[in-house]
Amino acid sequence: MMKMKNSFYVTTPIYYPSGKFHIGTAYTEVLADTIKRYKQLRGYDAYMLTGLDEHGQKIQTIAESKGLTPQEYVNQMAENAKKVWSLMDIKYDDFIRTTDERHEKVVQKIVNKFIENNDIYKGEYEGWYCMPCETYFTETQLVDGKCPDCGREVKKMTEESYFFNMKKYQDRLIKFYEENPGFIQPEFRRNEIFGNFIKPGLEDLCISRTTFDWGIKMPNDPKHVLYVWVDALTNYITALGYMSDDDTLFKKYWPADLHIVGKDIIRFHGIYWPIFLMALGLELPKEIYAHGYIVVKDGKMSKSKGNVVYPEMLVNRYGLDATKYYLLREMTFGQDCLFTPEAFVERFNSDLANDLGNLLNRTIGMMNKYFDGVIQGKNDNENEIDKALKDYTNEQISKIEQLFDTYHLSNSLAEIWAIISRTNKYIDETMPWILAKEENKERLATVMYNLAESLRKTAILITPILPETANKMFTQLGITKPELKTWESLKNNSVEAGTKVIDKGEPLFVRLEKDEEIEYIKSNMN
Ligand code: MSP
């Protein structure tokens, strides 16, 4: 069976369960979830994978410090992760944990295959070792020659390790990059990886350790455990049942259409992952997208600085859609994004409460005032002003579609909001209150109709991103028929005459008291 044409497979990184998730991690989940929802709306059979990367020295140390076994600790963390993703309504299809038996078994089979292929050899690993943290660092990771985690002295040490022969695949990887220029997005990241890391020559990768045992054992040499990347990257295929008794999902969804990763791990995904797949004789993913970091005023979010923003705080106080809107709107394609409480409150008040919320509220208010809440249908010939709104909206829809298709969600939101501004302008241009005074009911009905239609389209466009708000909009507009909520209906259908809007619309977003809320967010960053 070949991967089905209309299937779409999107993945997030599997996170280290080393603490509570901040809005950086939440952003990745929201991005993947939104892309999945968009693809579904476009008729794809979309599948989203997320999960946890549960092995390694660090996890073992944290667990011990809490008086738990590593397994007990990661079990708790997996429950916590699922709770946050449920609060954020993340519609993942599977949650893979690297301690799952289905994963561990297949990883060992994969390593055996590497051994059979002569891709792995035994050598010596040399690095800077921090005794208290029990962790190796490379020269460049050290901070002033000391441990980057605890600041203490490090010692140069060597240990026996297994290595993956990356050099063997170098030429094939170069060829692949040359033939697939869009493989890594954004382009500047692709150029960075290709130019700075692949072209100058690959280093073989150390894949095992003997200094800790919380990991998957090397099948040929159990005093070694796999160290990070073979264990972690393969989750994307073990979760689909690759090399297992039931590989239906693997056949249906592999190769992945999109791996979403942060900029710090793009190198592993852009180099090691394709090479592991080549070694297994599998197809490579179609695209890897590296997003930037969410940072705060004093730099990286960190518990020790007490400046971490947690998604629960924002969702519980401002709602899920407002939180998602902020994250997806502020994080532009591939760039870092500065989180500030000021910008959060500003976006909420200006974009959500004012631009979108007021447009809907005003429109529903006028419809009730002038036509007892019933949409009349077009009773008047389309004039220049109507045509300008319609043409503009149609052009915007094509633009937005293209932006969604290339995962530029911040830009697509900006273009959706341009429709909202244009529709607000349409009210100023047509001046319905004057038409009402003049008792020009025919023209007034047409204006109301065009407003309803613009709002219907806006609701469809925001459906993958802000589904709750889209539904509220449909409800207030009295739009119940599923065929008026589909992406196709952006082109073909329109609101029906006789549709009854809600008597009194609830505001979609209630304006925030600026200073109070800025203070609230600040005092809840910790
Ligand atoms: N376990 C590995 C990934 C293995 S994937 C096969 C890992 N885990 S992590 O928990 O350290 O990071 C997970 C993801 O979170 C990475 O993509 C990383 O870029 C992302 N982020 C960590 N901090 C972030 C921000 N402040 N902002 C946005 N994303 C950030 O690496």
Summarize the structure.
The protein is elongated and about 90 Å long. The chain contains 19 helices and 14 strands. Strand 4 (120-130) and strand 5 (135-137) form a beta hairpin.
Question: Which helices and strands appear, and what pairs or packs with what?
Answer:
Layout: E1 7-15, H1 23-41, E2 45-52, H2 57-65, H3 70-87, E3 94-97, H4 101-116, E4 120-130, E5 135-137, E6 155-164, H5 170-179, E7 184-185, H6 187-198, E8 205-206, E9 208-209, E10 225-226, H7 229-233, H8 235-238, H9 248-253, E11 258-262, H10 266-280, E12 288-291, E13 294-295, H11 311-318, H12 320-330, E14 337-338, H13 341-371, H14 384-405, H15 409-430, H16 432-437, H17 441-462, H18 467-477, H19 514-523
Parallel strand pairs: 1-2, 1-11, 2-3, 7-12, 11-12, 13-14
Antiparallel strand pairs: 4-5, 4-6, 6-8, 9-10
